[in-house]
């Protein structure tokens, strides 16, 4: 998606390995003169050209390139040209502007030195129900879905595990989703886990398997992952006082799971009830004998005790099946209440709990969480995120997320596997913001842009104010001026309207940061160009806008720009293509914004890929009236809702 896309796919299924923009702008837009204004010369015959020095100066002064890169660009533009001669504007445009090397996203590489902090100091590229090939109710589980997520840079794979006839299976419980074998899922993770990145893969388990099949799960993971599998030396008894760093866990796989499971409590309760029923099915003498073995009470009192036992188990299930690592209520969560994952008769038969690195737990209040010495993880649905942001102070949540691993996931209402806006969760430092990777929507594109940073390794360090709550959040915005000039390759959209040429416009939105997203004014929190409408094909089909927009950015480390090409159809906008770029990775100057299809491929026909020529400039204007801070560090965060959240 966006900067991550690398292959063109047309409607006919043809593929191109490189983005190729033919130099065909609308004849009414003199692209070369606009781009190289003030740097080219015109001879007596009206031919316009650039000298080597002019190209070098343009690259440094307009594009913001280093002297070395500017010199290399000039060298490339004048390659195969006789020494001392000049280069035409058309050639300069082709080599320096309308090329994949001039995309807005800068090239980044992993900085290993920046990967040595605790895991809670990073945003981690995370998926939800990774195994699903489609929707949440009627699709199927498959290795292709897991592979797709991993090769695109995802580092957190979620598997819902249940008992199967021939071993543990992965499926979405309570639905018509067709299952897959747990072993096949683990083998897929092992094969593709470190293709896109050497940094750790986290397998997070929603574990509904019973104890016998959890033993099988542990055996499978140990055998398949081998030395890749990392977990604390003392297993489930480990107190995680400090998270390991991504650097320490290079080429490793770690497991995230609860330490206790409600199915164990339910199983124990079922055994107790069965015992009572068996006793009641015996004769009066037998009943009295059984009761007298344990106490001198009557059979009626024994029934009352069984009712109390059921109530006690229900209380234990709600309070301790997923309690904090070292703050379980004393006397309530005795180890005998649960079936241990470990087979005590055979030390080699250890269970999943013994190989868990990230313990998933619930907590009643942030005050309670502060008393826990061990680091842990917890999960909130998107709906719970909204409630917490509305009821808790921002600083309180950040204090939690700077120490522990907060995972968020789509609400149960998203049965079509669409996504929620990750901006609120990222804005308070949630490390694992899980999205449906099978979706092709604006939020998964914004996620891809975010994690294109740091070499696309799947780990992006949080801003300092999200790693340390004592550091103030920035409130003074910088102004990013985006000038949208014109489009190329628009013949690709000739069929967007059935009878006429598309009514084309460009929409610019901001995702990733609540404050920056809601600073945008206008319909649906976006900037929008005017509508261009002319011919369906040919030079005049290429749109001209030539419009500027000022966008306030307070938190560039969180925000991403999303460009959407739209076709205005009556009262609504119909999606054509997009491109997303993280603001932290944005290159200033005149850049070509490639148009990307929902599936991540470049939009193209047999002639050209589609793109938009834009200029990006940070302006420092003392007279610019900055907005008031959107988020007060001492106040609650109340993100607004967008009317078109789930519309591309």
Shape: elongated
Q: How much of the polypeptide forms β-strand, as a percent range?
A: 15-25%
Number of helices: 17
Mean pLDDT: 84
Major beta-sheet overview: 6 strands, mixed
Number of strands: 25
In the predicted model, the low-confidence regions spanning at least 5 consecutive residues are 1-16, 284-321, 326-339, 344-348, 622-648
- Binned, the helix content reads 25-40%
Distance linking N and C termini = 14 Å
Radius of gyration: 29 Å
Spatial strand arrangement across the major sheet: 10-9-8-11-12-13
Helix-strand makeup class: alpha/beta
Structural notes for this entry:
By secondary structure, this protein is of the alpha/beta class. The chain has 17 helices and 25 strands. Strands 10-9-8-11-12-13 form a six-stranded mixed sheet. A four-stranded parallel sheet has the order 7-16-15-14.
């Amino acid at each position: 998606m966006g900067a991550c896309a690398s292959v063109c796919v047309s409607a006919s299924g043809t593929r191109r390995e490189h983005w190729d923009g033919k130099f065909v702008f609308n004849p009414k837009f003199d692209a070369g003169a606009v781009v190289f204004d003030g740097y080219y010369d015109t001879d007596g015959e009206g031919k316009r050209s650039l000298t080597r020095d002019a190209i070098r100066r343009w690259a440094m002064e307009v594009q913001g390139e280093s002297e070395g890169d500017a010199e290399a660009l000039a060298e490339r533009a004048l390659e195969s040209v006789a020494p001392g001669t000049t280069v035409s504007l058309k050639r300069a445009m082709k080599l320096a502007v309308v090329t994949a090397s001039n995309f807005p996203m800068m090239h980044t590489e992993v900085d290993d030195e920046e990967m040595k902090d605790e895991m809670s100091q990073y945003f981690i590229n995370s998926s939800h129900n990774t195994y699903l090939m489609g929707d949440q109710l009627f699709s199927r589980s498959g290795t292709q879905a897991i592979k797709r997520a991993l090769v695109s840079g995802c580092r957190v794979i979620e598997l819902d595990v249940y008992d199967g006839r021939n071993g543990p299976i992965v499926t979405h419980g309570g639905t018509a989703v067709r299952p897959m074998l747990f072993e096949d899922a683990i083998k897929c993770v092992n094969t593709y886990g470190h293709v896109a990145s050497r940094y750790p893969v986290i397998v997070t388990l929603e574990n509904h398997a019973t104890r016998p099949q959890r033993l099988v799960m542990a055996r499978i993971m140990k055998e398949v992952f081998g030395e890749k599998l990392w977990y604390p030396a003392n297993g489930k008894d480990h107190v995680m006082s400090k998270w390991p760093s991504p650097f320490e866990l290079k080429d490793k796989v770690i497991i995230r799971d609860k330490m206790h499971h409600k199915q164990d409590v339910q199983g124990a309760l079922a055994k107790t009830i069965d015992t009572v029923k068996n006793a009641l099915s015996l004769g009066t003498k037998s009943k009295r004998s059984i009761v007298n073995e344990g106490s001198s009470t009557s059979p009626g009192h024994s029934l009352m005790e069984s009712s109390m036992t059921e109530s006690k188990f229900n209380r234990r299930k709600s309070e301790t099946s997923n309690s904090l690592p070292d703050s379980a209520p004393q006397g309530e969560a005795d180890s005998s209440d649960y079936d241990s994952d470990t087979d005590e008769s055979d030390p080699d038969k250890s269970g999943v709990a013994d190989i868990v690195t990230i313990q998933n737990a619930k907590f009643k209040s942030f005050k309670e969480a502060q008393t826990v010495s061990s680091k842990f993880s917890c999960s909130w649905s998107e709906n719970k995120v909204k409630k917490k942001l509305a009821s808790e102070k921002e600083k309180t949540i950040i204090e939690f997320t700077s120490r522990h691993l907060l995972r968020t996931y789509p609400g149960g209402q998203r049965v079509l596997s669409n996504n929620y806006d990750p901006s609120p969760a990222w804005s308070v430092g949630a490390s694992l913001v899980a999205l449906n990777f099978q979706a092709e929507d604006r939020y998964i594109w914004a996620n891809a842009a975010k994690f294109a940073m740091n070499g696309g390794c799947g780990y992006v360090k949080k801003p300092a104010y999200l790693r340390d709550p004592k550091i103030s959040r920035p409130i003074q915005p910088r102004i990013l001026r985006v000038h949208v000039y014109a489009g190329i390759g628009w013949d690709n959209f000739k069929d967007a309207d059935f009878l006429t040429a598309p009514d084309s416009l460009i929409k610019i939105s901001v995702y990733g940061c609540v404050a920056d997203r809601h600073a945008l004014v206008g319909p649906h929190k976006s900037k929008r160009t005017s509508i261009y409408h002319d011919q369906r094909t040919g030079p005049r089909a290429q749109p001209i806008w030539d419009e500027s927009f000022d966008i306030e950015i307070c938190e560039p480390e969180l925000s991403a720009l999303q460009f959407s090409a739209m076709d205005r159809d009556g009262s609504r906008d119909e999606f054509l293509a997009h491109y997303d770029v993280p603001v932290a990775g944005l290159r200033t100057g005149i850049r070509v914004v490639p148009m990307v299809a929902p599936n991540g491929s470049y939009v193209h026909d047999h002639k050209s890929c589609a793109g938009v020529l834009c200029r990006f400039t940070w302006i420092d204007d003392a007279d610019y009236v900055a907005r008031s801070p959107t988020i007060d560090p001492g106040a609650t965060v109340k993100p607004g809702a967008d009317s078109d959240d789930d519309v591309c």
